[in-house]
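Hey, quick one: can you model this chain's 3D structure?
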Amino acid sequence: MYLSPGAIAYVSIGLATSISALSARGRSFIAPIAAVAAADALTVYFTGLYSVIPSSVLSLLSAYYIYTPGFYLPFSALFVLSIAASALRIDGYWPGADIGISAGTIIAMLMDGRIRGYVRRNESMKGRDRGREINRDIMQSVVGSIIIGAVFAFGLTLARELVSVAALILYIVGSYFTTHTESWAASFLLSLERGGTPLGIGAIWFASGVLLALAIVPHVRLLAVTLFVLVIGDSLATIVGTSVKSARLIFNRKKSVAGFLAIFLSSALFGLFMAGWHGVVLALAGSLVESAARYPFDDNYLIPLTCALISNAL
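Sure thing. Here's the predicted structure for all 314 residues.
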C-alpha cells in the first residue's frame, strides 16, 4: 500500500508518541494504547485518514494527565500539530483528527481510574442542584445553536475546523482554571459545574461527542439533526424532566417520560424540517439512546455513533 509523505509523517508521530506513552513512569498506558491502536486501525482501514493516529495518542495522553502539569506537553503538541495542519491546508486532516481527539479522550475517560472517579462523581451529582443544571443546559443549548448555525453559515469543512480549534482552546482553558481558581473567570466557569466535580469533566464528554458527530455523520442536514439531539434536545430533556412531574421510563428509572417527550418531540420537529422522515428516524434513535444511556455508556458519544450508523444506512 502506498503511503503519502503526509501519511508517513502522521504514522511516525503516532509511533513516537505511543513509545513515549508506553515508557512513561507511574501510569500504565498499555491497555489504552492498545484500544487506541485498534480504533486507529479501523479508522485508517475504512477511511484512509492517517491524521487519526497522532491526534488520538496525543489526546489520550492529554486526557490522562488532565489537571496535572503533565497535561501541557502532549496537549501543546496536539494544538501545534492542528494549527500547522490548518495553516498548511492539509487536505482531510480535520475529519481524522476529530475522530482521533474523540477516541483518545473517550478511551481515557473510560479506562483511567482517576478520571473515572471524576466522571462517577459528576454522574452522582446530576440533578441535585436544579438551578445549576438548568444554567448548564441553557449554556449547552446556546453553544449547540452556534455550532449548527456555523455548519450552515460556513459549510461543513470550515465549521469543523473552527469548532475543533475552539474545542481545543476551551480544553486548555478548563484545565488551567481548575488549578487557578482565584479569578472571576474561574469562578464563573466553576458555577456551571456540579458540586465536587473538576472543571470541564462534563464539557469534555460534550466536546468529544460534537467532534465525533462533525467527523462521521455524512450529510449536513443529518448532521444538523444529530447535533440538535445531542446538544439542544438533551438539554430540553433535562429542563423539562426536572420541571414537570411524570412517570419514570421503564428502561431507565432515572429518566422521566416528560424528559423523553421533550427531547423526542423537539428533535423530531427539527428533523422533519431538516431532512424529512429520515430526520425523524434520527431523532427517535438519538432520543432513545439519550434516555437509555448509563455510565460508562455516555450519550455524548453514543448519540453521534448511532446517528452516524443510521445516516449511512439511509
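One thing worth noting: Residues 30 and 287 are 35 Å apart (CA to CA).
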